[in-house]
Amino acid sequence: MRLDSISRLRYFNDIALTGSFSRSARRLGIAQPALSIAIKKLEEETGLKLINRADRRMSLTSDGEVLLAHTRRILGNLTDATRELAELRGLEQGELKLGASAMLSTCYLPDYLLAFKKAYPGIRIRLFEAGTDTLENQLINGELDLALIRAEKPHDQIRYASQLSEQVVACMRADHQLAKLDSISVEAFCSQPTVMFRGGYYLRDSVEQRARARGLSLNVQFETNLVDLLKTLVKNEMGLASCLAMIVENEPELCTRPFDPPIPLELAWGWKKNHYLSKASQAFLSFFER
Length: 290
Fold this sequence. Notes:
The strands form 3 sheets. This protein has a 6-stranded mixed sheet with strand order 4-3-5-10-6-9. Strands 1-2 form a two-stranded antiparallel sheet. It has a two-stranded parallel sheet with strand order 7-8. The chain is an alpha/beta fold. α1 packs across α4. It is built from 11 helices and 10 strands. It folds into 3 domains: 3-90, Winged helix-like DNA-binding domain superfamily/Winged helix DNA-binding domain (Arc Repressor Mutant, subunit A); 94-164 and 268-286, D-Maltodextrin-Binding Protein, domain 2 (3-Layer(aba) Sandwich); 165-264, Periplasmic binding protein-like II (D-Maltodextrin-Binding Protein, domain 2, 3-Layer(aba) Sandwich), CATH 3.40.190. It is rod-shaped, with a radius of gyration of 31 Å.
């Protein structure tokens, strides 16, 4: 369809809304004679009489009513197409605000972030590192587009996708006495000095809660959210740590053992419910579904 034909359909739709050539001319910002000429050309194009002009208040003919229904569908589809194309252009330049814990940002996300940047090099990614509670609040407040958060207790204002199942494990030197065991009790973990993430992070809170339930407490000697520092401290016998097994996959000096009973961790990408998920966010999520 030619651009001038689309303009005439827009004019025709506006006249149907206002019921007046003069009011539509003022709304559209064009002269009334030009509007009348545009509608006349539309009638010539379609071979239909669209408007009864004899009435004091103009009205659509039966043919005009039929064309109006099609016009509104055409204009609606055009609006949707324009919005989608704008979003696609946005994938070439724009910003995606992501949230994740320090450990996941360091050990889990890099490959996905690199793949996404190669596919959409114009998108700027801003990565915010925090614990799940903070990330949930940032999502709800509209500060983040997506965040990798715990999903075992869904928040009623957040939607979830691309779930990841992990376990919280105990991390130690490979030659530590507890490394001989297949699994470690919370009691055994609490009997050792520990190097832990700060409070508010599930990797610490989950162990601490289970310790308190048994009347125990952690012997925390060092707190840090820096993954590399945490591993260095464990290597240098500063204590045991709780973590995800993925952080020591390439660390021959370290090993992990599951807790007994296990401490599960369900993770998922979340975004604010009832908010439109942008094309950039949808494209990013697709990397986790391949």
